Amino acid sequence: MQDDPMSRLEDHHVPDHEGGVNPAISDSSTFAFSRPDLLRAAFHDEAPGCYLYSRAGNATLRTLADAMAALEGSEAAHVTASGMSAIAITLMQLAASGSRIVASHTVYGGTWALLGNLLPRFGVETRFADTNDLEEVREAVNGDTAAIYCETLSNPMLRMPAIGALAQIARESDAALVVDNTFAPLLVSPIALGADVVVHSLTKFINGASDCIAGAVCASDEFIATLGDVNAGTAMLIGPVLDSLRAQSIYKNLATLDVRMQRHGENAAFLAERLEEAGLETVYPGLASHPEHDLFDSQANPGYGYGGMLGLDLGTVEAAEDLAMRLQDAGVGLLAVSLGHARTLFSPSGSSTSSEIPPEMQNQIGLSPGLLRFSIGLDADIEATWERFSDCLADANLV
Fold first, then answer.
1. DSSP per-residue letters across 161-227
2. In this structure, are 200 and 335 located in the same domain?
3. pTM
4. What are the phi and psi torsion angles at 215 (to 5°)?
5. Are residues 228 and 271 in the same domain?
6. Which of 14, 214, 327, 364 is the Cys-Cys partner for 332 at CB 3.0 to 4.6 Å?
7. pLDDT tens, residue by residue, 335-380
8. Do 251 and 262 reside in the same domain of the chain?
9. 306 and 169 within one domain
């Protein structure tokens, strides 16, 4: 059995019994040195315990990074100013001009644009493939492949790849397997399944309050050190630095991650079952009808459910937008992008968070224009929520 990620996190947080229950905030951009030789050594990461400049890190960022490493079971971690910056610095560190990235064809729209539009300007090719088709992945990999990239649960279609099998293909190709675990913190531990790097948008479920933007990279000591190298590290030279005050607030919110993820999952499962019973095309990994339901069970950490993300395919964007407005007016949730908030959030993915993906490719991968993506909230009375939801479906002539 895999180690429980929340237990690792709790074991990691050992407060000072003579101090505050929360660690102090390091609110400095630069740090003083007692001797010139320490200052010289710090520039080359050869002064353990010394901080040089907060672009390279400080005690508060290290506290959050160490907590993320504990959560994901990695040797180390680095926190950043956004989830997209975490993805970008990871892939730019791994890939160089002339190399290839093999990526899932069902990824977040911003990630698709990074891979398909920006990185090619620097000579990095991306081959998009169905990561649920291992033969297609093998055919896409070549001798120049630097990384295989996927999401634990794809955004927005909620497909799950076999992470261990992808890790094996990556190892055989001398490539790194990078997994975005934003949709499934606690639920799945990709590093335990063979992934080399896990990236997160901490903005979402990790923080849980929709009040900041942040990201994280969880990997080996060696890889995290390369990110911070003063001569060639993408984190150091591009500098997507997370503010220390925000890092502290995210760190404190980690303590309730298990309670929140369990409630998100319970509420999402409740609604998914009723939506499917009503005859609507519902996408949720906890449903037996989900194509990777059994695979999810085989890869998941027990006790945390199937997550708070749910899809409802209404066929057309007009139907999706109409239902979204009815749900918002009825108080079911809010028409908004992002996820992980206490309130339910929903938006038609094809015209919002996946709009960077060209329509012809959306059609090719099976992303319906009528897919309404939900991040189910922490509603205390989910049955009352369903009553309002059901009324909206009836008013829209969907049931």
1. --HHHHHHHHHHTT-EEEEE-TT-TTTB-GGGGT-SEEEEETTTTTT-SSS---EEEEE-HHHHHHH
2. no
3. 0.96
4. -145, 175
5. no
6. 327
7. 999 999 999 999 999 889 999 999 999 999 999 999 999 999 999 9
8. no
9. no
